Amino acid sequence: MSDAETVAVVIPSWNSAGLLARCLDSLSGQEAEIELLVVDNGSRDRSVEQLVGRGVRHLALEHNHGFAAALNLGAAEVRAETILALNADTVLEPGCVGRLLAALRADPGLGGVQPRILQLEGSGERLDVGAARLYSAGQALTRDGRAVELGAGEEQTADHLRGGEIFGVCGAACLLRRELFDRLGGYDERYFAFYEDVDLNVRARIAGWRFGYAPDAVVWHVGNAVWQQGFDRPSAENARLVARNRLATQAKFMPLAALPRIVAVEVGALARAARRRRFGATLRGKLEALRWLPMLRRERRRLAASGDVSRARRWLGSDGPGRRSS
């Protein structure tokens, strides 16, 4: 098979020994030639031993470099022209990879496509596909520039079964063109984890790429399963990174007229964080983003000079285009 016909599957993994086998097993039922690479982020469990025992190609890093860096490292090591970014706590339905590849091939203007991602509950048992709740039917943006996963936590409706154009793709499972990945320099490694996919979607939109939703391709996802095992206070670390990275992404492309709305939303976020006993972590994240402002201003100017920022801004809020049916 040529590089153009092969899909590279890159799986960042961190303390995923209890989840990784299901993910790897689900790749064997795919109707596509796969170039597999797992990037282990310094796991302290038996993840690496499991990969060695299964004969899976992998990179074993000494410590946790974060999801963004691990994915970038993996993308640099594989040859295929399309890269399936995949979380270790996912399980693919048969035929998923081939359907994603077909959707990407059908429209040269698409930089990436996302499957219908369903919620894999705590028991780990997959339900009937039609009975499961959604994890994501694509990414959308609120009017203040926050990202949301379309349909998250909802029962599936006919709308979720229609393909079409979406603002962006969820990093838990998405097929990207190597050309997009290489031109944009991959994920922003400063983010470590959380919002790195949103940031890539924004930069890709500004550069002229579009994204599609392919609901006939199905992936199950636990969501934050590994994160819960890696930190003493995972919810606090999550809050810090989201607070920092969300503001960083907004600073790169949001119109200045949205600043009052952003401030109001962020003050509200601090109040919610206080009620949930993670005020300190959330505040630290926001202060870290403020310290990044000189760098973010330079990035904002560079993006404005390199493309059309309105291509991302037009997706803001309910008065944006939403999902465009195919």
Topology:
Layout: E1 6-13, H1 17-27, E2 33-40, H2 47-54, E3 58-60, H3 67-77, E4 82-86, E5 90-92, H4 96-106, E6 110-119, E7 134-136, E8 139-141, E9 147-149, E10 164-166, E11 173-177, H5 178-184, H6 196-206, E12 210-221, H7 227-230, H8 234-253, H9 259-275, H10 279-291, H11 293-306, H12 310-313, E13 324-325
Parallel strand pairs: 1-2, 1-4, 2-3, 6-12
Antiparallel strand pairs: 4-11, 5-12, 6-7, 6-11, 8-9, 10-12, 10-13
Helix pairs in contact: 8-10, 8-11, 9-10
**CATH homologous group name of the largest domain:** Spore Coat Polysaccharide Biosynthesis Protein SpsA, Chain A
Number of helices: 12
Largest sheet composition: 11 strands, mixed
Helix content: 40-55%
Q: How would you describe the shape?
A: globular
**CATH-defined topology of the largest domain:** Spore Coat Polysaccharide Biosynthesis Protein SpsA, Chain A
Model regions low in confidence, pLDDT < 50 over at least 5 residues:
319-326
Over all CA atoms, what is the radius of gyration? 19 Å
Q: Could you tell me the mean pLDDT?
A: 92
* Count of distinct strands: 13
CATH level-two architecture of the largest domain: Alpha-Beta Complex
Query: Mind telling me the CATH class of the largest domain?
Result: Alpha Beta
Which structural class matches the secondary elements? alpha/beta
Domain unit count: 2
Amino- and carboxy-terminal Cα gap: 30 Å
Strand composition percent: 15-25%
**What is the H/E string?**
EHEHEHEEHEEEEEEHHEHHHHHHE
